[in-house]
Design a protein that fits this description.
The protein has 22 helices and 16 strands. It has helices at about 5-30, 35-60, 60-75, 80-90, 95-100, 105-120, 140-170, 170-200, 205-225, 250-270, 275-295, 295-310, 320-330, 335-350, 385-400, 410-420, 460-520, 525-555, 565-575, 600-615, 645-650, 670-680; strands spanning about 125-130, 135-140, 205, 350-360, 365-370, 380-385, 405, 430-435, 440-450, 560-565, 585-590, 595, 620-630, 635-640, 685-690, 695-700. Helix 1 (about 5-30) runs antiparallel to helix 2 and helix 13 (about 320-330) runs parallel beside helix 17.
Length: about 700
């Protein structure tokens, strides 16, 4: 017990120093991010909790001891919320999206401790027991156990978020955030273990306080090491939004919670409670050292070189490298995503901290930074080159696509590239420049530097980089061509829509214009005024109809499905339509089949099909509307003997918006009908032949009795 207070005071002092320094830096600095504030507050809370732990350990009276333990649990209860908040915002470029996704959990993480502290603080601890070896065991009430559960949950979720941040980092960005994540991971690991023990046995042993203090000291030293690496708070990473998929944290936490009872028994058997803190400290140090070694770029590269040298294996598996780059380039449809993916993959493949992709602009006088593993400020990533410098750059790589040593190149464009791609490490070796070229042009360059241990690139690696540069250029060119095609199609769609829209508005405007010109002449005529009002009303209805029909192109169809007898529905839907004098309408709606439909929306479909059939008839014609049923579907059938359509028009244009064979119309009716039928889970089947007529069949799922 005598060891608890000094360790607690030491850890409190270290945390207080870190928190005070960062509070001052945050207040006086220009960038006051949520990550900085939450980090400072969480470290301050940890320091306060350690200080209170020291007070309770030094207390000589039982009441004083219980008082400080209750204060400790109150302080401890607010840590999970700050941990989760920090893990969601540290080194994240999409902070708002993550905070929005986790908003409800964050509210619970902050609100629940406040409720427990307000109404149940007296029930945190039931009583304390003095053991024979002089140690103290504190028995927890259900609020105290709830707080330990929150600590476990907060530790796991925070480690999971930090794991995602680490996976998203690459190159120099991973180097910047590595020790911060390692220090916090150590802290969360210790808290996860001690809180799970407290929850398992419903008590807190004084040995756990010792372990918490030791863990906090170790993690604080790692955090101090991380703070020496400038700019780690300014890194912007974009981790995946998938919460549980491929999370090593979730896997290990689940395995541990299943085995925690067995592990507790083993600890008791190998030495008892007295030696437990020392053994746990040894295990903790071993885990931290192992994690540090596993994340060491130098160790990984040395192992790779050892295998290559002594087992006569190449440094790179060329087929694997090619497959990875092919998969990466084919998995993106946006140029920024492709460039980011290529930069990260190059950094991982060639063990380089610094990889920058520069693309030539459309004017061929500027080079723009498209992706980087080291440069986080992308507000002005443009490098201006003179016409002669661009010409020299193209000449350098026009005949020879081999990468060059940028540090040894003497050309002016190479000097400007060196200035825009500063070295991060003094012993990272020379920077090389890889061209991204096609047969006809150069699209940009890749600057690779700060290689682990400064190892120079070999000839086989240069061959791989030549292929990587060519492959990257081809992928970028394909994306650029695809974007041009999309823009062209969007412009064509806009022009088509504008043509129909302007045509109808022009007719409406002409009607109003004639009416306005005649108003001064015939205003005293009551019949003219009545006719003018009807004309204005009709024109307004026409404009509203155009706007309403155009809105269906950009909006989803919402249906309210209810069981309805199809024969009754069809009769009611079609009775409001009057057939022209030259058209005979024959209906057969005797079926009593039931389907789940939206009566209002499906009525539009049936009327649209009947009206289309009548407009397709030239001279005298016949329309047949009927219902048929099979085992799974009910069919609404509309058949005419009109002009029909070609198979090419049916296959390519019938259901596309703004495609019509009518003199008057927007070409939206069939497009809207198809959307409505598909919203019902059905489909439209068309059979047509030019000069002979058309048959439409609307297939809808049959309601099973």
């Amino acid at each position: 017990m005598n060891l608890i207070a000094p360790l607690a005071y030491l850890s409190a002092g270290i945390c207080g120093m870190i928190s005070a320094v960062y509070f001052i830096l945050t207040l006086t600095g220009k960038r006051r991010s949520i990550a900085r504030w939450s980090f400072s507050i969480s470290i301050a809370l940890l320091g306060l909790e350690s200080l209170v732990t020291g007070f309770s350990a030094a207390a000589t009276h039982a009441d004083h001891f219980l008082f400080w333990q209750q204060i400790r649990l109150v302080v401890l209860s607010f840590l999970p919320g700050t941990w989760i908040l920090f893990s969601l915002t540290y080194a994240r470029g999409s902070t708002r999206k993550f905070l929005h996704s986790w908003r409800y959990l964050l509210i619970v993480a902050f609100a629940l401790p406040a409720l427990l502290a307000t109404f149940y603080s007296d029930s945190y601890i039931l009583f304390r027991q003095l053991q024979g070896d002089g140690s103290i065991t504190v028995l927890l009430g259900w609020p105290g156990q709830a707080i330990n559960f929150l600590i476990i949950l907060g530790s796991v979720l925070s480690m999971m978020n930090l794991e995602r941040t680490y996976r998203a980092a690459v190159g120099a960005m991973r180097w910047q955030v590595k020790y911060m994540l390692l220090g916090l991971g150590t802290l969360f690991l210790v808290r996860f273990y001690t809180s799970s023990q407290a929850l398992l046995f419903a008590n807190v042993h004084s040995g756990m306080d010792t372990l918490n203090s030791i863990g906090l000291i170790v993690s604080s030293l790692l955090i101090i090491r991380a703070l020496s690496r400038r700019g780690h708070f300014d890194v912007e990473l974009y981790p995946s939004h998938a919460v549980l998929s491929n999370s090593l944290t979730i896997l290990l936490a689940g395995i541990y919670l299943l085995a925690v009872g067995v592990l507790a028994k083993i600890v008791a058997l190998i030495g008892g409670d007295i030696s437990f803190p020392l053994k746990a400290f040894g295990v903790l140090i071993a885990l931290v050292l192992l994690a540090t070694l596993l994340q060491s770029d130098h160790l990984r590269l040395n192992i790779k070189q050892f295998i290559s040298r002594h087992f006569k294996r190449p440094m790179h598996d060329y087929r694997t490298v090619w497959m990875r780059f092919t998969e990466e380039s084919s998995s993106h449809v946006r140029q920024p995503d492709l460039c980011d993916g290529l930069a990260k993959l190059i950094a991982e493949t060639f063990d380089s901290h610094s990889v920058n992709l520069w693309l030539l602009g459309s004017g061929q006088t500027k080079i723009t930074l498209a992706a980087s593993t080291v440069i986080t400020d992308k507000t002005s990533p443009v490098l201006d080159l003179l016409h002669e410098e661009i010409k020299a750059l193209k000449s350098q790589f026009s005949n020879l696509r081999r990468p060059i040593d940028l540090d040894k190149a003497k050309a002016d464009w190479a000097r400007k590239l060196r200035e825009s791609n500063p070295k991060k490490f003094p012993h990272g070796g020379d920077r090389i420049c890889v061209p991204m070229t096609t047969r006809e042009s150069i699209l940009g360059v890749i600057v690779i530097g700060d290689r682990v241990s400064g190892i120079p690139f070999t000839e086989p690696e240069f061959d791989i980089l030549i292929s990587v540069g060519t492959h990257a250029a081809s992928s970028l060119l394909n994306l650029q061509l695809s974007e041009k095609i999309i823009v062209t199609r969007e412009l064509e769609a806009f022009q088509t829509m504008a043509t129909f829209f302007v045509h109808d508005l022009k007719n409406a405007a002409s009607t109003l214009n004639i009416m306005v010109k005649n108003l001064p002449i015939h205003w005293d005529n009551p019949e003219f005024r009545d006719d003018a009002l009807r004309g204005i009303s009709k024109t307004g209805d026409r404009i509203n109809d155009i706007i309403g029909r155009l809105s269906t192109v950009r909006s989803e169809i919402a249906v309210d499905l209810k069981p309805l007898e199809m024969g009754v529905f069809a009769k009611q839907a079609i009775e409001i339509w009057q057939a022209p004098e030259n058209t005979e309408l024959v209906t057969r709606f005797e079926s009593r089949a039931v389907a789940r439909i939206d009566k209002e929306q499906l009525s539009k479909v049936l009327l649209n099909l009947v009206i289309n059939s009548s407009e397709a008839i030239e001279g005298v014609g016949r329309i047949e509307a009927s219902i048929s049923v099979n085992e799974k579907y009910v069919f609404l059938k509309v058949r005419d003997n009109g002009c029909g359509m070609s198979q090419e028009f049916v296959n390519k244009n019938l259901f596309r918006p703004f495609q019509t064979t009518k003199k008057h119309g927007l070409g939206i009716g069939m497009f809207q009908s198809k959307m409505i039928v598909e919203a019902h889970g059905g489909r439209i089947i068309v059979e047509s032949e030019a000069g002979k007529g058309t048959t439409f069949r609307v297939a809808l799922p049959l309601e099973q009795s």
